[in-house]
Amino acid sequence: MTKYDPRLRDASGAFVGDDWTSICEIGQTFDGRVLTRRRYEQVESAYLMAVELFAQESGITELVVRTPGLHGISSGRLLPGYGPEVSNLSAEEFYDGRVVSLAAGLELVRAMLREDGVWCLLEAEGRFSLAVGWDYYLYVSSHRPCFQAVDRVHGLGLFVDEGFTSPYDLDLEDPVPYRPADEGFWAEVELLASRTNGEVALLEMWAYNAWCWHLVTPGDGIARSVPRSDLVPWSPPSSVHPWQ
User: Fold this and answer.
1) I need a labelling partner for 55 at 20 to 30 A (CA). Which of 147, 226, 240, 242 fits?
2) Higher per-residue confidence, 123 vs 72
3) Residue, of 209 and 160, whose pLDDT is higher
4) Range list of β-strands (E), the chain
5) What are the residues whose beta carbons fall under 8 Å from the beta carbon of 163, sequence distance 6 or more?
6) 3-class SS at 179?
7) What does the alpha-carbon distance between residue 27 and residue 152 come to, in Å, rounded to a whole number?
8) What distance in Å separates the CA atoms of residue 240 and residue 44, rounded to the nearest whole number?
9) Which pLDDT tens digit goes with each residue over 206-241?
């Protein structure tokens, strides 16, 4: 789904019109018209209304955050300048598997359209998914045809290219084998700690560009971890690695 008129595409499908692609272009002129803040917000609101229409016709009231990423945010509140659904979320609460309301999902889409510090996929497994791409492209899929939503989106001045495969579709990626942080994992961490002066550094990553370090001693795990984080033990190069 885009704001770009499909009649202004060449034979390869590339858009050849003169149009803006980012909020940072407010004040510039495109096709003889200045992009004002008001005009930008009108288009942004149309996108959010379109997402809501597709979600409602798909029967979606909650969404799950997938493959989250942070840019320029390491701690504190995630999006303090946005709606109440997300303004009180901390950076540590933005993790893979986090369930959010549709209203919160819309605020996350707004932030992604503005390229404002966060990115993620939003999905209801097997029923609905959406991703915000570069240049103000929005990819939506549903388990239902959503004919009414398509018609109403056209009324918002937007365009729907049906049958398009999202480049962010997780099914297109090769699965990455992850082992659980079970008793066996912690036994190996403890063995490593015993060979590195009784402690080992453990890197916890819960989103792209979001991590923290823990110092683990034998017999101790970590007091708290963000759900579905990646945990990576680290030791100095000179130490004996327990997996060797």
Assistant:
1) 226
2) 123
3) 160
4) 29-30, 33-34, 62-70, 99-101, 118-124, 128-132, 138-142, 200-207, 210-216, 230-234
5) none
6) coil
7) 29
8) 55
9) 888 888 888 887 766 665 678 888 888 876 655 444
Rounded alpha-carbon distances, angstroms, from residue 95 to 51, 99, 190, 219 = 22, 9, 26, 27
DSSP state, residue 125: T
Phi/psi at 172 (5° precision): -85, -15
Alpha-carbon gap, residue 185 to 113, rounded angstroms: 39
Inter-residue contact 91 to 204 (CB < 8 Å): no
**DSSP state, residue 133:** -
Spatial separation of the C-alpha atoms in residues 230 and 95, rounded to whole Å: 11
Residue recorded with tokens 């388990």: 143
Question: What's the number of CA atoms in the CB half-sphere (13 Å) around residue 68?
Answer: 30
DSSP letter assigned to residue 144: S
CA distance 68 to 95: 6
CA distance 83 to 104: 8
Q: How confident is the model at residue 244 (pLDDT cuts 50, 70, 90)?
A: very low
Please state, in angstroms and as integers, the Cα–Cα distance from residue 73 to each residue in 171, 202, 210, following that order.
28, 21, 8
Task: State the pTM of this model.
Answer: 0.86
Question: Which alpha helices (H) appear in the chain, and where do they start and end?
Answer: 37-57, 84-87, 102-113, 147-155, 183-194
- DSSP label at residue 244: -
Residue 146 · residue 51 · CB < 8 Å: no
